[in-house]
Design goal:
The complex is a heterodimer. Chain A is an alpha/beta fold. Helices cover 64% and strands 9% of the residues of chain A. Chain A is rod-shaped, with a radius of gyration of 32 Å. Classes of the chains: A alpha/beta, B alpha+beta. Chain B: It comes from Nocardioides jiangsuensis.
Chain lengths: 286, 139
C-alpha cells in the first residue's frame, strides 16, 4: 500500500515529467522576471534547481528542507539568493523563482495526475514554501552584508583630507555625521595636521544636510582637539538655512571662525598665515 | 482647541539604532518637501526630528516615530510624533532648560527642537515613557 502511494505521489510525477515541469516552471517564473534576466539564464537556473530537488527527493512525499538529502539543494538555493541579492533583485523576484514551481506542478497535475497525486500536493506545497522561505532568509542576510560593506566603503571614501596650500588643509564633509564617522573624520584631520605640519584646517560642511546638536558637538570637539595641536580651524560652507537652524537651536560656535564658502575660508587662512593674494594688473597675457 | 487636522500621508519608523535616526530624518525631509515647506522650514523640521529621534534612542531607550503630512484648512504641515517607553522625564521644566542635560549632549536638543517648530507638546510619566509631538506648518 505504501508503495502504491509512493508511485502516485508528487515526487513520482515530478521525476517522470522532468522536461515538462522545467518548461512550465521557466514559463511561470519568466512572467515575474521578464526583462531582469535572459530566458536562457532562467532556464539554466530552473534546470539546476529541478535536478537538485529530484536528487534530494527520496521515498515518499513528505520531505522537509532540513533533510540531509537536500544539502545540495540548500547550497544551490543559497547561491542563487546570494547572486540575486547582489544583482539588486527584490525579495519577491528572488523567491518567485521557487514559488513558480507550484504553478508548474498544478499544470502537470492537471495533465497527468490522479486523485492520489492531488492529495499529495499539500505536502509538495509545504516543501516549496520552505524552499521559498529559506531563499528569502538567505536573501535578507546577503542584502544586509551588501549594506554593511557599502557603509564601510562610505566611511573610508568620504573623508579625504585635501591640502589647499602650504600649511592649509581642508576636510570636505559630505553626508550624515554620526558618532562612528565623526571619530574617523577627527582622527584623519588630526593626523593630517601633524603629518603636514599645517597650522590651518578648513572644515567644509557644504555637503552636510543638517546640523543638529550632535553634529555641532562633534565639530566643536574636533576644533578643540586641533587647537591642542596648535592648529586653527575654520568652519566653512554654512548655508543660510543651516545658519538659521543653528541659531534657533541655540548652538554657540563661540570664537571659532566660520565662513559661508570654502573660498572665503581659504582667503582668511592665507591672510592669517601672512600670504597676500594679489590680482595682477596690466599685462594679461600669461 | 482640537480643530480637525487631516492626515494626508505618513510613515512609521522604529528607532533602535543610529541608522534609524538617519531614516527618520530622511522621512522628515521627504515629507517636508511634499508638504512644500520652505527650505529653511524643511531644515528646521529635519533638525528637530533629528534631535527628538536621538532623544528617543539615547534617553528613551528606543521607540517609534510617526512622521506625517497634515492639513488644517488651507495650511499644510508636517507632524512628527516620537513615542518611547523609557524612564520618562522627572522634571520637564528642567529638561526644557537650555544647556541642561542628563547625558553627555549639549543640553539643547529638547529646548532647541521646541524653538525650531510651530507646535510642541510633551507628555511624560516617570516609569512609563515619553511622547513628544511637533508640527511645522507652511507659511
Amino acid at each position: 500500500m505504501a508503495d502504491a502511494a509512493v508511485d502516485k505521489g508528487w515526487a513520482t510525477l515530478l521525476r517522470r515529467n522532468g522536461d515538462e515541469v522545467v518548461a512550465r516552471w521557466s514559463e511561470a517564473a519568466a512572467q515575474s522576471l521578464e526583462g531582469r534576466m535572459t530566458r536562457a539564464e532562467l532556464e539554466r537556473d530552473v534546470r539546476e534547481m529541478y535536478d537538485a530537488l529530484v536528487a534530494g527527493v527520496g521515498e515518499g512525499d513528505r520531505h522537509t528542507l532540513a533533510d540531509a538529502s537536500f544539502a545540495e539543494l540548500r547550497a544551490l538555493l543559497a547561491d542563487v539568493s546570494h547572486t540575486r541579492a547582489r544583482q539588486g533583485f527584490s525579495s519577491t523576484e528572488t523567491a518567485v523563482g521557487v514559488f513558480a514551481l507550484k504553478e508548474a506542478m498544478l499544470g502537470v497535475l492537471e495533465e497527468h495526475g490522479d486523485l492520489a497525486a492531488y492529495r499529495s500536493f499539500a505536502d509538495f506545497s509545504r516543501l516549496i514554501d520552505e524552499l521559498g522561505l529559506y531563499m528569502l532568509e538567505v536573501y535578507a542576510q546577503a542584502r544586509e552584508a551588501v549594506i554593511g560593506e557599502q557603509a564601510d566603503a562610505l566611511l573610508e571614501l568620504s573623508t579625504p583630507v585635501v591640502k589647499l596650500w602650504d600649511g592649509i588643509i581642508s576636510l570636505p564633509l559630505v553626508g550624515t555625521l554620526d558618532s562612528a564617522r565623526t571619530q574617523v573624520v577627527m582622527e584623519k584631520l588630526l593626523q593630517a595636521l601633524v603629518d603636514t605640519g599645517s597650522e590651518h584646517a578648513i572644515i567644509d560642511i557644504t555637503g552636510v544636510p543638517a546640523v543638529d546638536t550632535q553634529v555641532a558637538q562633534h565639530l566643536l570637539k574636533t576644533v578643540q582637539a586641533a587647537r591642542l595641536l596648535g592648529a586653527e580651524c575654520i568652519i566653512s560652507g554654512i548655508r543660510p538655512q543651516i545658519a538659521q537652524t543653528v541659531v534657533a537651536l541655540g548652538i554657540e560656535f563661540g570664537d571659532i571662525s566660520t565662513k559661508a564658502s570654502l573660498s572665503e575660508a581659504l582667503l582668511a587662512a592665507l591672510r592669517k598665515q601672512g600670504t597676500d593674494v594679489v590680482r595682477r594688473t596690466g599685462r594679461r597675457d600669461r | 482647541m482640537p480643530t480637525p487636522v487631516v492626515v494626508e500621508s505618513g510613515e512609521i519608523h522604529e528607532i533602535h539604532t543610529d541608522a534609524d535616526v538617519v531614516r527618520v530624518r530622511q522621512a522628515a525631509r521627504t515629507l517636508a518637501l511634499s508638504a512644500k515647506l520652505s527650505l529653511v522650514d524643511q531644515t528646521k523640521l529635519v533638525t528637530a526630528a533629528s534631535e527628538l529621534a536621538r532623544n528617543t534612542l539615547v534617553y528613551g531607550g528606543g521607540g517609534r516615530a510617526t512622521v506625517e503630512v497634515v492639513r488644517l484648512g488651507p495650511r499644510r504641515g508636517v507632524r512628527a510624533v516620537f513615542v518611547d517607553e523609557g524612564p520618562g522625564i522627572p522634571d520637564l521644566d528642567l529638561a526644557l532648560t537650555d544647556g541642561w542635560t542628563s547625558g553627555s549632549g549639549m543640553g539643547l536638543g529638547l529646548s532647541g527642537a521646541r524653538r525650531l517648530v510651530d507646535e510642541f507638546e510633551v507628555s511624560t510619566d516617570v516609569g512609563t515613557g515619553t511622547t513628544v509631538s511637533v508640527v511645522k506648518w507652511t507659511r
